[in-house]
Design brief:
This protein is an alpha/beta fold. The chain is built from five helices and 38 strands.
């Protein structure tokens, strides 16, 4: 792995360097585990006491914490953001494919850009367009007329159905399926009649999609994932959902059909969204949120009961079941007090 001097890192980060500009680092590690040759970070002042034992070659920290560390320091406004940037600079993650494997199938009319790599047993069907420096991992399937933008990377066993469009600089983790049929059926006297899903999926630039997530194609119009969206593992995005720019969706979230989610939203893990409604920009839904109605105002929203001991939960559940009876009794008491007051 190539080494970088602290001077070079400081320039890339716009950081103030204090210490040995020629000192070199090759990796990044946590504050308590970092060793010589590595760089670490302090994102919260409450962990200052660990600085005295830190063995890292350098620490990224805020100006107010710098006096508590006697070693090499890169002074930054946001150490956690700087950690993310340095992790990208020192990233040692391998390519999902490094060449066009002999066992890969690529249709004769597929358009393949410069520097494309396709792993073993991948299938690239007719009409596909692959941008420059695309990586297609082993076992991937790219359906007819799909388009994949420049520098987009697919890990192993990703399935991209026909007519799906992925933008530039996207990352799709293993096992994800984009463009499968949405759950569309009509009922004919008890018998389900399938509705062909004729739309596609359009994914913007810089979108990251976790492992084993599914994004269904639209019924008539497209399912749309805008630029900068990040989606965690094992999420279900149903047909005709629209997700706005830079929204983050944590694992195991389920979104029903024709939901519209705004820009810059934060969706906690295992949340569930009803379909055919709209969530405005700037909404945070905490974990396991059950969103059954539209949200029209930005803010933080929660639902559900926090974890209790089983004994406490049983009492809570019993009381919840009696709410209607308690409400009737309360109204009766209020009515009686009003009558007595007269």
């Amino acid at each position: 792995m190539a080494a970088l001097t602290l001077a070079a890192l400081a320039e890339k980060l716009g950081a103030e360097l204090r210490g040995d500009a020629d000192a070199e680092v090759t990796a990044i590690a946590g504050l308590g585990q970092a060793a010589p040759g590595q760089i670490t970070f302090l994102s919260s002042s409450k962990y200052r006491q660990h600085l005295k034992d830190c063995q890292a070659t350098a620490v990224m920290l805020k100006a107010e914490d710098a006096e508590f560390f006697g070693g090499n320091a890169l002074i930054v406004q946001d150490p956690y953001l700087s950690y993310a940037k340095v992790a990208q600079i020192l990233d040692s993650t391998p390519a999902s494919a490094t060449e066009i494997a002999p066992s890969a199938y690529i249709a004769s009319d597929a358009v393949v850009g410069q520097g494309v790599a396709v792993g073993h047993n991948a299938v690239i069907e007719s009409g596909v367009v692959l941008g420059d420096n695309v990586q297609i991992g082993p076992g991937c399937f790219i359906g007819k007329n799909a388009q994949i933008g420049h520098r987009t990377k697919l890990w192993a066993n990703v399935s991209i159905y026909h007519n799906v469009v992925l933008g530039d600089d996207c990352l799709v983790q293993s096992g994800t399926v984009i463009g499968a049929d949405g759950f569309g059926y009509a009922n004919d006297k008890g018998r389900w009649v399938k509705i062909p899903q004729l739309g596609a999926v359009r994914v913007g630039d810089r979108v990251e999609i976790g492992a084993c997530t599914t994004i269904d194609r639209g019924a008539l119009e497209d399912t749309i994932i805008a630029d900068g969206v990040i989606i965690d593992n094992q999420c279900q995005i149903a047909h005709n959902v629209t997700i706005g720019e830079n929204t983050a969706i944590a694992g195991a979230t389920v979104m029903a059909g024709s939901l519209k989610v705004g820009k810059h939203c934060f969706i906690g893990g295992a949340s569930v969204f009803n379909g055919h409604m709209e969530i405005t920009d700037g909404v945070t839904v905490t974990g396991m949120g059950m969103v059954m109605r539209p949200i029209t105002e930005p803010g933080v929203y929660s639902s559900g009961i926090p974890l209790q001991t089983n004994r406490e939960w049983r009492k809570t559940a019993a009381r919840v079941l009696k709410i209607e009876d308690m409400n009737k009794r309360l109204k009766s008491v209020e009515k009686k007090l009003e009558e007595e007051g007269k």
